[in-house]
Amino acid sequence: MIRKAVPADRAALVALMQTSNGYETPAARAMIAEFVPRWAFTETDEVWLDEEAGETLGFHQLIPHDGTVWELDLFFTANAAQGKGVGRRLFEQMAERARALGATAVVISSNPKAAEFYRRMGALDVGVSPPVGEITWERPKLRLNL
Questions:
Q1: Could you write out the three-class secondary structure of 32-90?
Q2: Looking at residue 104, what DSSP letter applies?
Q3: Which of 26, 27, 99, 102 has the fewest CB atoms lying closer than 10 Å?
Q4: Domain 2-145 grouped into CATH 3.40.630.30
Q5: Rounded to an integer, what distance in angstroms lies between the CA atom of residue 16 and that of residue 78?
Q6: CA–CA gap between residue 104 and residue 146 (Å, rounded)
Q7: What is the mean pLDDT of residues 89-106?
């Protein structure tokens, strides 16, 4: 079931980020270690999670980017849930939610390991996001037109 996350869900979402197989390299682990203590959200933020029997299977966060464009800021699927349709379900819900917020597009600065998933979901390559802050590598930049 996909539902809006509440601040009480933060610990489960942080655990999902910290154990993600998409961030196994030392640089990626360091980035997550830097990011996680600062990450917080409120009930008005666009953070949505997928859960089953109390287990968090994945989540995403949308943030306003530029007018009618939103940004998929975070998108994680639990390692054990990958390949089981959870990512697709979350992505489809994210696109539906973005449309409901008035978005005409969603931009994604992707983890290189996840870029192919976004392409399969219909996102198009539009460039490269340069390293910034604790993210020390280039990332594919994609756009999902809604």
A1: HHHHHHHCCCCCCCEEEEEEECCEEEEEEEEEEEECCEEEEEEEEECHHHCCCCHHHHH
A2: S
A3: 26
A4: yes
A5: 6
A6: 5
A7: 98
What is the per-residue pLDDT for 103?
A: 98
Instruction: Tally the residues of the chain.
Output: 146
Which residue's structure tokens are 């007018």? Answer: 67
**Dihedral over Cα of 95, 93, 99, 108: its sign:** negative
Residue 107: per-residue pLDDT = 98
Q: Is 111 helix (H, G, I), strand (E, B) or coil?
A: coil
| Closest of 100, 85, 69, 82 to residue 4, by C-alpha | 100
Of 48-52, 77-81, 115-119, 132-136, the poorest mean pLDDT is in 132-136
- 77 Cβ contact list (under 8 Å, min separation 6): 57, 58, 86, 87, 90
